[in-house]
């Protein structure tokens, strides 16, 4: 088994294998974006669960198709959480917007 803090994954035979952490481009929309903006700072460790999408666009200079994968979180799907490994946090309920009648 890997040492503390070392990324790992279990293989089919139950053996632990060292693994590399991953980094992703993330886009957050709606109320989740507001809460992340109000609660987190640059470099704060967070967990993201969202939909992976591939964005594409033509390169401005060459016209070649460029792509990148992004994880999208919005009001319909996805969650963002703060890692409490090295920081503490206090839960503060956000006011719900008034519903139109």
UniProtKB/TrEMBL annotation:
Domain of life from the UniProt record: Bacteria
The keyword DNA-binding appears for this protein: yes
Keyword DNA-binding belongs to the record: yes
CDD domains reported in the protein's UniProt record: SSB_OBF
Signal peptide: none
Annotated SUPFAM superfamilies: Nucleic acid-binding proteins (SSF50249)
GO molecular function per UniProt: single-stranded DNA binding
Entry keywords, A to Z: DNA-binding
Protein known as: Single-stranded DNA-binding protein
Biological classification of the source: Bacteria, Bacillati, Actinomycetota, Actinomycetes, Propionibacteriales
